[in-house]
Design a protein that fits this description.
- By secondary structure, this protein is an alpha/beta fold.
- The protein has one domain: HUPs (Rossmann fold).
- It is 45% helix and 11% strand.
- A six-stranded mixed β-sheet has the order 3-2-1-4-6-5, sandwiched between helices.
- Helix 2 links the parallel strand 1 (29-34) and strand 2.
- The chain is globular and about 55 Å long.
- Iron/sulfur cluster binds next to helix 5.
- Iron/sulfur cluster (SF4) is lined by residues 110-111, 114-115, 199, 201, 203-204.
């Protein structure tokens, strides 16, 4: 087996640290991995498989791809690669594109609907496949973009959880790439030669999307002052509630000031 390169070792170390910090994986876990075919999910699958080789605990990985119905999304390359790697995997068709067309009002953005349906499909698959956890490929930049999106557009301090009991009360969602910068995943996925497959979503990369704007803003800030992204992630783990506008005894989510939704 070829020795792992520097980037692989670094990503493995960061993922291993996150798994330890948040107690993500236990002996006997059967983990469904949401494999979209993009760089993040391929990296997650590869890294978890590598960590498993040396882990003191035993766990199974089941890659599952949700086919959202976007015209042009082709899972052939994904299935072939997984088979070659010896995985028992599956592709599940979900009417995401159809639902978007039927339900979205003119100008309404599709991402939250799309994510909700995908999550629901993955939780159901986890249940029927006997998986107790769902692993997703969200990385550091996803966490901090979500933090800023919620602050800027929803008036909330909220990001993502690296370890979360899902809304269905059964599945546990884990995000082992929480500490890994997106740029390192981009480089690693190219280096590893994963069969990265375009999701064919007609909205992907639309410059009017809030996430795309936040990404641009963060890139500009990071360019001007390297370390800003790392600080934003660190901030998520170092919250001083006493210095926020939180009323004593108020339930979580009870806003003090009105939100400006305009
Ligand atoms: S960009 Fe497309 S695929 Fe991604 S969450 Fe939004 S609608 Fe879904």
């Amino acid at each position: 087996m070829a020795a792992a390169g520097h980037l692989e070792r670094r990503i493995r170390r960061l993922a291993g640290r996150a798994i330890g910090d948040f107690g993500m994986i236990q002996d006997g876990d059967r983990i469904l991995l949401g494999l979209s075919g993009g760089k993040d999910s391929w990296t997650l699958l590869y890294i978890l498989a590598k960590l498993r080789e040396r882990a003191p605990v035993r766990f199974d990985l089941l890659p599952v791809t949700v086919h959202p119905g976007f015209p042009g999304f082709d899972t052939t390359g994904i299935e072939a690669y997984l088979k070659e790697q010896g995985y028992d995997s599956r592709v599940v068709h979900a009417p995401i594109f159809e639902t978007m067309q039927a339900k979205l009002a003119e100008g309404e953005r599709p991402c939250s609907l799309c994510s909700r349906i995908r999550r629901g499909v993955l939780y159901t698959q986890a249940r029927v496949s006997g998986c107790n956890k769902v692993a997703l490929g969200h990385h550091r930049d996803d966490f901090i973009e979500t933090l800023l999106l919620n602050q800027f557009y929803n008036g909330k301090i909220k990001a993502m959880a690296p370890f979360l009991r899902a809304d269905d009360g059964r599945s546990v969602v884990i995000r082992p790439l929480v500490y890994v910068p997106e740029q390192e995943i981009v480089r690693f996925a190219a280096e590893a030669g994963f069969p990265v497959t375009c999701c064919a979503c007609p909205f992907c990369g639309d410059p009017d999307m809030k996430r795309v704007k936040i990404k641009g803003l963060l890139a500009a800030l990071e360019h001007e002052q390297p370390g800003i992204k790392a600080n934003l992630l660190a901030a998520l783990g170092d919250v001083e509630l006493r210095h926020l506008l939180v009323r004593q005894g108020a339930p979580s989510g009870a806003a003090v000031l009105p939100r400006n939704s305009g």
